[in-house]
Design a protein that fits this description.
By secondary structure, this protein is an alpha+beta fold. The chain is about 50% helix and about 10% strand. The chain is built from 32 helices and 19 strands. A hairpin with a 2-residue loop joins strand 17 and strand 18. Helix 11 runs parallel beside helix 13, helix 15 packs across helix 18 and helix 17 crosses helix 18. Pathway: Protein modification; protein glycosylation.
């Protein structure tokens, strides 16, 4: 054999030896995709409607459609949410662009709406399945092929948030975060391994030794590309920049104590973040200043800072070696430089300094006040003030969770021997993500990857103990065809069988079982919200906005100029995207936590107008003043419609006062015969949310119900029972419309005269589109001259063209009574909308 033949032969042998693992990973990937598409019937409904899951998925479909409508221009500012201010879009552009390009290619440049929806629905499942690839390689370079295969199996079935956010229909960027951040770690690890193996020094770069530099350079470039892809999927990607810098500092210190060169590390870091700096620059919005949530100069500065950090750490290490300074001074110098860097940032850019200082608490700290009520940002380990592991077990399984802790312990112990760079990297990465789930359980979809890798690493150590490698080598040397396999079984030892069974029973089977239980789709949004949002779209006036247009962001200090026909829809922030995307109307509050109002830091702050202040308002006048204050125009209210569902009035009501920091008094202990029980109090029933949903808006002057959906069994009946029991009410103790839509109107003014100081009453029987009736009534006392006035929100003559096409209205005229006098009063829709006076 010639020397020229050897590399080819070696390459062929390498490909042949890796083929079984490649096939195994491919099979695992397809199984992972199958798991994620199991609930397809909950997404693709029989009537042709595609029901995306949760909140942000709908918003991505909106940004995707706007992108395709205006390709290649994307929406950066959206005036159709957070009315009347609009919202800057902090979502990264890459996720939408990948879906758009896929749609354009599959649709031959003109994709149909059905194709776009199909691509959008399947996209998270595909990205979730692809995650097995980087997880396999990380596992492989940590614990060998067996660890890689086991890690791929574990992530394929990983339950909890990773599965939920990568399942069909959950068209959100979170799975892209997981995929690209893991690819970033994989390529960064491969670059470190390759550079260290080749003994790369900076002199090799200066002297153009491409045989040494080429492979680490390619891996480092790919690491930079993947970090940029991660960053363009989520602006908060600086979390992994922090992780890599923390790893680098630790690795430099370890190398320095061992008198080893860290040039391999410096080269990898400098190239990685040089590439990421170049790739992020075109997406920076200079007017965003230093912002973690939008693509701003913060992302460029931190990438350049990371690159400079690697260069500085390498320079200092070389100076230490050249001057033979003792190794234990090295971490002290690094600490001093970090302190000086922070002080310099404080002087040069206080906003950047504040952002850097506050970011760790934002990511790793436990949230308080209103943010603590956001499901995904609550701590993984606390429910209220109670420590719990239940959420960890449901996301990772009990064995997986404890195996990950054990894996980190082993990697930490290895540092006191001779750790490999990949081991230190995985340890630091895992510790930081563990701290992240302590602060916010949303990072569970990150930690699932760490759990898979660490559990597989622990499993591989178990297999090493039973000499699995001997069996593996025997398989390669003796099995040439399927007929040779039976003879291999004779070599299998009992302890090897037990080890494999232990891995299957304690690691694989639990994640498989949880995955099968959880891969059932979602009912979010539920039928009533789909129905109510589509009713809103068809039966309310056009707000005068081009839904698929790309609008320019207003200049600094200015407000977006809305058409006169524009109006907002008030509801709790959870439902804002559905109102916008399904209903084509403009919510005041949205799941970006915009438009909530309330307070953030202290009860002494002014209670800002928004959803929280409106729904907790203790009177109609207070609530209306909130609506009027939302819109800066003095003659216009910030909302025309209010949407309430049964959850807002019952199970999630507590989140509303939490955002105002004024949470006391909404419940009161009552003796129930067997003990005290906290029941809704007067303050709760006085709240605008209760007045609207529990009391049907009875007695309100400017709020009328215009639509309700079908009733479902909820906690509403219990709240009515408490009201009747404590306040001697007579509410029918039945469930009513799950969602109720109210309209804020000027109200018709009914005036008349009676005897002085006479009690005057007005009432009407309201008939809803569901066939339900309820009583609407008001009472007042005439003045000393016998004059009285009512403001009523319902018209008796039905809807008019161009206005709300309501199906909930009085079944007959109002009945006005005082003393022995009874009169019928009819009110036109124009009188209600214009606030006209009706003399009786």
């Amino acid at each position: 054999m010639s020397s020229q033949d050897r590399p080819v032969s070696s390459f062929k042998d390498k490909m042949k030896s890796s083929l079984p693992y490649t096939l195994a990973v491919a099979i695992i990937g397809f199984v992972s995709l199958w798991v994620r598409t199991l609930p397809s019937d909950t997404v693709f409904l029989s009537n042709g409607f595609v029901k995306f899951t949760s909140n942000d998925a709908w918003y991505h479909i909106r940004t995707l459609n706007v992108l395709l409508e205006n390709y290649p221009h994307r929406m950066f500012f959206n005036p159709m949410t957070n009315y009347p201010y609009g919202s800057y879009i902090h979502f990264g552009p890459l996720f939408d662009q990948m879906m758009a390009i896929s749609s354009l290619v599959l649709g031959l440049g003109n994709p149909s709406a059905a194709l776009v929806n199909t691509v959008g629905a399947y996209f998270p499942a595909v990205l979730g399945a692809l995650t097995v690839i980087p997880v396999y390689y990380i596992g492989k370079y940590l614990g060998g092929h067996k660890a890689g295969i086991l890690a791929a199996i574990l992530i394929a079935f990983a339950p909890g948030q990773f599965l939920a956010r990568s399942i069909i229909g959950f068209t959100d960027h979170h799975v892209a975060e997981s995929l690209f951040s893991t690819f970033f770690i994989m390529f960064f690890m491969l670059a470190l391994i390759s550079a260290k193996k080749k003994g790369l020094r900076f002199e090799d770069v200066f002297n153009k030794r491409f045989n040494v530099v080429k492979e680490p350079l390619l891996y480092s470039i790919m690491a930079g590309v993947m970090y940029s892809a991660y960053q363009l999927s989520w602006p908060g990607a600086s979390l992994f920049e922090l992780i890599v810098l923390a790893y680098a500092i630790l690795q430099y210190i370890l190398d320095n104590f061992r008198n080893e060169s860290s040039d391999y590390l410096g080269f990898t870091g400098i190239i990685t973040f040089l590439v990421s700096t170049i790739l992020i620059l075109p997406f920076v919005h200079p007017d965003m200043g230093f912002s973690l949530y939008y693509y701003s100069w913060f992302h460029v500065v931190t990438a350049l800072g990371a690159m400079a950090g690697f260069a500085a750490l390498s320079f200092i290490e070389r100076e230490f070696k050249r001057k033979q300074i003792k190794a234990y001074y090295y971490p002290l110098v690094i600490f001093g430089i970090c302190v000086l860097g922070l002080l310099a940032a404080k002087v040069v850019s206080p906003s950047l300094y504040t952002l850097i200082i506050n970011t760790p608490n934002t990511v790793f700290g436990i949230q308080t006040g209103g943010p603590s009520t956001i499901g995904e940002v609550a701590s993984m380990f606390y429910s209220g003030n109670t420590f719990t592991l239940s959420k960890a077990f449901s996301n990772f399984t009990a064995t997986g969770f404890f195996a990950s802790l054990f894996g980190m312990f082993i990697l930490a112990a290895n540092m006191f021997r001779k750790p490999r760079p990949q081991e230190v990297l995985v340890l630091v990465w895992s510790v930081f993500i563990f701290l992240a789930i302590y602060g916010q359980n949303r990072f569970a979809y990150y930690y699932s990857i760490n759990v898979s890798v660490l559990s597989a690493y622990v499993g591989s150590l178990l297999l090493d103990k039973v000499k699995w490698n001997e069996l593996d080598e025997k398989f390669k040397s003796t099995v040439k065809s399927p007929a040779d396999i039976p003879s291999l079984f004779k070599s299998v030892k009992v302890e090897q069988v037990i080890a494999v069974l232990a891995i299957v029973i304690f690691l694989i089977y639990p994640v498989y079982g949880y995955a099968m239980q959880q891969a059932v789709g979602s009912n979010d949004p539920n039928g009533p919200w789909l129905e109510a949002s589509m009713w809103l779209r068809s039966n309310t006036p056009d707000p005068g906005m081009d839904y698929n247009a790309v609008y320019e962001a207003p200049k600094n200090g200015e407000l977006f100029k809305y058409p006169d026909a524009a109006y907002g829809v008030m509801s709790w922030w959870d439902y804002g995207h559905w109102i916008e995307v399904i209903g084509h109307r403009m919510p005041n509050a949205n799941p970006f936590q915009a438009g909530i109002g309330g307070r953030r830091g202290s009860i002494n702050e002014e209670n800002q107008p928004g959803a929280a202040t409106f729904f907790t308002a203790q009177s109609e006048a207070e609530a209306s003043s909130v609506l009027e204050a939302i819109d800066p125009a003095p003659d216009k209210a910030g909302s025309r419609y209010i949407m309430s569902d049964a959850r807002m009035a019952t199970e999630i009501f507590g989140a509303m006062p939490a955002w105002t920091l004024d949470t006391e008094g909404y419940t009161q202990p009552y003796w129930t015969g067997s003990g005290y029980q906290n029941l809704p109090s007067t303050r709760y029933y006085n709240s605008m949310e209760s007045r609207l949903h529990i009391l049907d808006g009875n007695g309100l002057k400017q709020y009328r119900m215009v639509y309700e959906t079908e009733a479902y069994q909820t906690q509403e009946v219990g709240y009515k029972q408490v009201y009747n029991f404590i306040f001697n009410g007579n509410l029918p103790e039945v469930d009513t419309g799950y969602i109720k839509i109210f309209e804020y109107v000027k109200g018709a003014k009914i005036t008349g005269t009676a005897s002085s100081n006479e009690t005057v009453k007005i009432s009407a029987t309201i008939l809803t589109g569901q066939g339900r009736t309820f009583n609407y009534s008001q009472s007042t006392t005439s003045d000393s001259e016998g004059r009285y006035q009512f403001t009523v929100p319902y018209s008796t003559d039905g809807p008019i063209a161009g206005q709300t096409q309501f199906d909930t209205a009085p079944s007959g005229p109002y009945v006005l009574s005082y003393g022995s006098t009874t009169k019928e009063v009819r009110i036109s829709e124009e009188a209600v909308l214009k606030g006209e006076e009706i003399k009786v």
